[in-house]
Amino acid sequence: MVANTCVETTARYASEPGYKVTIIKDATAGFTPQLKDVAAEIIWPTIVEEVCTVNEWLARKSHKSL
Length: 66
Known about the structure:
Structural class: mainly alpha
């Protein structure tokens, strides 16, 4: 899936009814790396609860399970 369209649209759709959405930025792709980086840094933070890396997400998950 291309983050600039499919992932972003799905995230917007899920956010509207109140779901807490996280996008893992280094597990997505874009039409170009530059477009994906712009989305991750500028657009996604305005529509989802969290934008993080795989390692950041895994670290939080391992702390919650302890």
